[in-house]
Amino acid sequence: MKTITLSVVLATRNEEANIGRCLEAVKAIADEIIVADEQSTDQTVAIAKKFGARVLSEPHHTNFHITKNKAIRAARGRWILQLDADEVVSPELAEEIRAIVHPRGHPRGVPRVRPHLGGETHPGSEINGYWINRKNWFLDRFLTKGGQYPDPTLRLYRRGLGHLPAADVHEQAKVSGAVGHLQHDLLHYRDTSFAKYLDGFNRYSSLVADQLQSRGVSFNLLNTLNYLFLKPAVTFFTIYFRHLGLVDGFPGFIFALFSGLIHPVAYIKYWQHKYYPEND
C-alpha cells in the first residue's frame, strides 16, 4: 500500500470557479485530496473528483471551520496542508512543501525555515507545523499594505497535532509543539469582484452580530456611538493610514472603508434580530 505522506484538505461550498485551479497547483505534491463539501449545487464535487479527491458530504455550517475540521480529521497523511478553494500554491511554495514532507527524496534536503515571529527554532528539534505568508487579491491587485501582507497563516502541520478551534472565522490553527515559517507565498484570490466581496461581507457581519449577541452587548448610547461611529473611524484610520493601505490605491481605500463598516452593520443586524426577529 502506498504511503500517504501529504494530505491536502479543503472545505467547499459552490466553488466550481476556483477549485480546479486550486487542485491543479497541488496535484503533483498531494498523496491524497480530501474535500468536505457543504452540499454544493454547482460542479464543485464533479471537478474535485476529476482530481481524484475523496469527497465528504456535510451540511452547511455558519462557521465554515467546523467543515474544515471534518476534512482534517478524515486525512490519513503524515502531513496535512489545509487550503481554501480560492487559494493557489505557487510553484515555489509547492517545491518548498515537497522538501518538508519528503526530505530524503528531495535533492536539496529540508529547506531552511525561519522561526515564526521571532520565536526560536532549535537545530535538530522536530517542527510540527509551518506558517505560510499569503498574498490577498482584492478587486484588481494583491494588496501589499493595510495589514493584508504578509498575512501569515498556519496551514501545514503533522496529522493529529493541528486543528481549528472553530470559534471564529479568522482564527488560526492550533499546533502542538514547535512551528517554523516557510519562505514562499500562498496566493489567495479572495475578492475578485466587489459583488463577491459584499457576499463575504454580509456573511461575516452576520457572524459578528452573533458574537455580539453571545456577549450580551447592550443597546445604550455609549455602545451605539462606539459601534456606529468610533469603531468604524478607528478601523479605517488604522488600516488606511497607520498600516499604509493608501499605497494600494483605490482598492486600498475601499478595503479600509468597508473593514470599518463591518462594525455598524453587525450592530444593526444584532439590533434587528433582538427586537424584530420576524424581519430577519
What does it look like?
- Helix 5 crosses helix 7 and helix 6 runs antiparallel to helix 7.
- The protein has 280 residues and is of the alpha/beta class.
- Strand 1, helix 1 (19-26) and strand 2 (32-37) form a beta-alpha-beta unit.
- The longest helix has 27 residues, at 249-275.
- The chain has helices at 19-26, 44-50, 65-74, 91-101, 194-215, 221-242, 249-275, and strands spanning 6-12, 32-37, 54-57, 79-83, 87-89, 114-115, 127-132, 134-138, 141-142, 153-158, 162-163, 174-175, 178-181, 186-191.
- The chain folds into two domains: 6-190, Alpha-Beta Complex (Spore Coat Polysaccharide Biosynthesis Protein SpsA, Chain A), CATH 3.90.550.10; 194-279, no CATH class.
- Mean pLDDT is 90; it is low at 117-124.
- The strands form three sheets. An eight-stranded mixed β-sheet has the order 3-2-1-4-10-7-13-6, with helices on both faces.
- Helices cover 38% and strands 21% of the residues.
- It has seven helices and 14 strands.
Question: How are the elements arranged and paired?
Answer:
Layout lengths: L5 E7 L6 H8 L5 E6 L6 H7 L3 E4 L7 H10 L4 E5 L3 E3 L1 H11 L12 E2 L11 E6 L1 E5 L2 E2 L10 E6 L3 E2 L10 E2 L2 E4 L4 E6 L2 H22 L5 H22 L6 H27 L5
Parallel strand pairs: 1-2, 1-4, 2-3, 7-13, 8-14
Antiparallel strand pairs: 4-10, 5-14, 6-13, 7-10, 8-9, 11-12
Helix pairs in contact: 5-7, 6-7
